Amino acid sequence: MYWRPRVSEISLARAGWLWTLNTAAHTVPFLAAAGLLIAFSPVTLPVALAAVAQAWIIPELYAARGANVVRPRAPSKRPAAEQGALGLLGDLLGHDPRELHARTGLVLEKGAFGAWLVGEAGAILVRPRGRRVHCYCVKATDPNLPSGDRVAHLLLALRTDESGFATVANLAFSGAGWRLRRRLPKRMRPALERAVEAARPRA
Amino acid sequence: MSRLIRMDQTGHTTLAQWNAEDAASVQAAVEAFRAELDQGYFAVVSEGEGHAEQVRELPVDAPLVILRRPIAGG
Predict the structure, then answer these.
(1) What are A90-128's pLDDT values in tens digits?
(2) Residues B52, B58: contact at Cβ < 8 Å?
(3) ipTM confidence
(4) CA dihedral defined by B11, A167, A190, A19, rounded to 10 degrees?
């Protein structure tokens, strides 16, 4: 993807700030309108509340979009293929990541940009300090792979070239980890907690 | 015994096995390796947790070489 500049620390930080600015541009006008309505006439309270709800819903929708990148896809119709793929994926992982994948469906991988959670068709990057997350849509180009192979494809691509991986992937969400956590399937939340721990610098 | 495997719809398929001291098995593996690269696969050697290297020539000493498809933004 020659037309995209390679992702770096600077571009990641800039993407985070731009995303925050964009979210603020969508929500602050609603909050301001709500405040003005109440200030001018308390009778408009229901409309003001609707504006506040709108300001709350927009970031939640963005977070839901981010959580969707790691939702499991339809399993392969070949159980033997799934087993084989999981065996190969297990060979690529240490004991702890393998156990986490079995519980949550996500693989935790530490990288230079932070801690990654790799799913079947997307990945979450938890930035150092563990507050901000970036959610990426990215997948193997063969749609008929078993789920374990889909994860293994992304994992090997990430290990080979982390910057290239983030460059190819499409950013679906960037924002607070707590907001994403609420939109993740419950089964996957422990993986996010582990990634936040892994991303924080050790004291 | 080293292995060349391809991740595909069956989970994975072993395309070649070779012994570095057996020239015939190495030659067969090299041919299988090149054929898959021509088909658009990428070859990767896993180097333990967190590390992998993409290769364009068959690393004869590697115990496992994995062929994967390219990735794309969703």
Answers:
(1) 999 989 999 999 999 999 999 999 999 999 999 999 999
(2) no
(3) 0.93
(4) -150
Buried b (16+ CB within 10 A) or exposed e, A26-57: ebeebbebbeebbeeeeebeeebeebbebbee
Distance CA B65, CA B53 (A): 10
Query: Two tokens at A21?
Result: 């600015």
pTM: 0.92
Residues of A with CB under 8 A from a CB of B: 69, 76, 78, 80-85, 87-88, 91-94, 97, 109-111, 121-122, 136-142, 144-146, 148-149, 152-154, 156-157, 159-161, 165, 168-170
> Which residues of B touch chain A, with CB atoms under 8 Å apart?
5, 7-12, 44, 46, 49-54, 64, 66, 68-74
